[in-house]
């Protein structure tokens, strides 16, 4: 089969949308760090829809580590397809927004030069939670992180997200250019604000004047991003190749739903993303909190409990009535009361839509994929909600079970005695703590809850939290996950 590329694009079957603009006229106005499936099914899609009207906003897509995406997409001239499925039908579209592809470690100085191109006005990020080199409990810079240590001594050849952003800004300042705006698109609370604090703290390690210039000149709008985009599988590639009649080496499969709420604070030109469905607002915080606590909090709960119950995907976990019921109860009873009201927004409709989205049978969203990087995800997905409830003296039964499920997962062996492939930046420490404590709740719970980068100094000391988690973990070990979920669901 021939490859999807600019020369074969005209052969796509009718019904598959493709770029309606002259790609040769598109300039690179955005450098995006973290060219994963999510960016390609989200920001790149919103941008693609505008390029006919405003060709200034093509995207240089940068992978910070591996060359795989570049190797797959370069022979396709940066083209790839997005298939949105709800289980009943497909919508397919070829995206042409990528004007370039780069692999940062291959030529860090070259990437810095790209960041200093005056046509670039925005640098955006989807580098996952762990890509921010921060302490997840406090948002503070981890100055002892090996990449941060390296970059502070070698800013001409950085490795980290912060290194590239600060290195690029330093070049622009040296050349008398205005800065770019930095647009964080990861699932972190106050993501722009958090990234701003990290960028300034990192810059201050190198040059205080530069840090002060960034503080005064650079905008970091926060965003709420939402679209469920599981990792692409070989089966997806085969199915999509057949539908396109062309081989797409790295297509993306997603749900139809997509949402992007952006703080309108760019300090200059920005794409009219509202014309392609994004929402510009003054304050993103209530949207972010709602999405992180309801969607991502429920997702992680389904991932840990579902995995332990033997469910390979989120849809399979949702087919377990007690588990689906427990998550719905948690959203309604425990999470929603902690959220600020949003004008004209019906939270019950949002809950129902989320549960429906989780059930999407077309998405093979692996529980093991969502379970990854728990140390980076738990704080904003579950622990913030728990803190808010404890401050008001409210019970945390289901949330504590979700945390206990993570502890059970981290203990390293599933209920059939099989090893769990623990992927987490703190996996070595987790493994050591779990091995030392053994699979016993009254030892494992205090050992893991003592991880201050995750739980802070406050939560482990609060006996309402530690005893609820320990009790739930004890039930998981003694009675198994299925029986525990059923018990808590019905109590
Ligand atoms: C998921 C998210 O992998 C995960 O941890 O919870 O990627 C989720 O699919 C997105 O945030 C949905 O917008």
UniProtKB/TrEMBL annotation:
InterPro entries: 6-PGluconate_DH-like_C_sf, 6PGD_dom2, Mannitol_DH, Mannitol_DH/Oxidoreductase, Mannitol_DH_C, Mannitol_DH_CS, Mannitol_DH_N, NAD(P)-bd_dom_sf. GO terms for molecular function: oxidoreductase activity, acting on the CH-OH group of donors, NAD or NADP as acceptor. Keywords: NAD, Oxidoreductase. The keyword Oxidoreductase applies. Residues 29-274 form the Mannitol dehydrogenase N-terminal domain. The keyword Acyltransferase does not apply. Residues 283-476 form the Mannitol dehydrogenase C-terminal domain. It holds the Pfam family Mannitol_dh. GO terms for biological process: mannitol metabolic process. This is Mannitol dehydrogenase family protein.
């Amino acid at each position: 089969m021939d490859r999807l590329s600019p020369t074969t694009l005209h052969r796509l079957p009718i019904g598959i949308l493709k770029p309606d603009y002259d790609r040769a006229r598109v300039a690179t106005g955005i450098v995006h760090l973290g060219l994963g499936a999510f960016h390609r099914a989200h920001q790149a899609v919103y941008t693609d829809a505008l390029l006919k009207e405003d060709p200034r906003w093509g995207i240089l897509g940068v992978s910070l580590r591996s060359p795989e995406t570049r190797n797959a997409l370069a022979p396709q001239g940066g083209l790839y397809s997005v298939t949105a499925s709800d289980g009943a039908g497909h919508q397919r579209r070829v995206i042409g927004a990528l004007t370039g592809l780069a692999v940062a470690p291959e030529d860090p100085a070259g990437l810095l030069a790209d960041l200093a191109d005056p046509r670039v006005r925005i640098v955006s990020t989807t580098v996952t939670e762990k890509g921010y080199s921060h302490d997840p409990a406090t948002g503070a810079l981890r100055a002892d992180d090996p990449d941060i240590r390296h970059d502070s001594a070698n800013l001409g050849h950085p490795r980290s997200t912060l290194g590239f952003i600060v290195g690029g800004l330093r070049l622009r300042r040296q050349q008398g250019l205005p800065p770019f705006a930095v647009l964080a698109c990861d699932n972190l609370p106050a993501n722009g604000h958090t990234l701003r604090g990290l960028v300034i703290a990192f810059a201050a390690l190198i040059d205080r004047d530069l840090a002060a210039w960034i503080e005064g000149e650079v905008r970091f709008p926060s965003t709420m991003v939402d679209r469920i985009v599981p990792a692409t599988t070989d089966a997806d590639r085969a199915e999509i190749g057949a539908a396109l009649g062309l081989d797409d080496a790295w297509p993306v499969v997603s749900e139809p739903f997509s949402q992007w709420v952006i703080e309108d604070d760019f300090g200059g030109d920005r794409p009219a993303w509202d014309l392609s469905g994004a929402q510009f607002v003054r304050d993103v915080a209530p949207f972010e909190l709602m999405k992180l606590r309801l969607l991502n909090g429920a997702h992680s709960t389904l991932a840990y409990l579902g995995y332990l119950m033997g469910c390979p995907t989120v849809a399979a976990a949702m087919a377990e009535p007690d588990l689906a019921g427990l998550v719905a109860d948690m959203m309604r009873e425990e999470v929603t009361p902690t959220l600020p009201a949003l004008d004209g927004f019906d939270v019950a409709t949002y809950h129902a839509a989320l549960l429906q989205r989780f059930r999407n049978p077309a998405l093979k969203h692996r529980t093991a994929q969502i379970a990854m990087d728990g140390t980076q995800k738990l704080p904003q997905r579950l622990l913030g909600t728990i803190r808010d409830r404890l401050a008001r003296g409210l019970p945390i039964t289901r949330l504590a079970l979700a945390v206990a499920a993570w502890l059970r997962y981290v203990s390293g062996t599933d209920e059939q005695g099989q090893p769990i492939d623990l992927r987490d930046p703190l996996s070595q420490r987790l493994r050591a703590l779990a091995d030392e404590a053994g699979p016993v709740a009254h030892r494992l719970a205090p050992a893991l809850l003592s991880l201050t980068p995750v739980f802070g100094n406050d939560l482990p000391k609060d006996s309402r939290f530690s005893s609820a988690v320990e009790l739930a973990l004890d039930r998981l070990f003694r009675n198994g996950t299925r029986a525990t979920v059923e018990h808590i669901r019905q109590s």
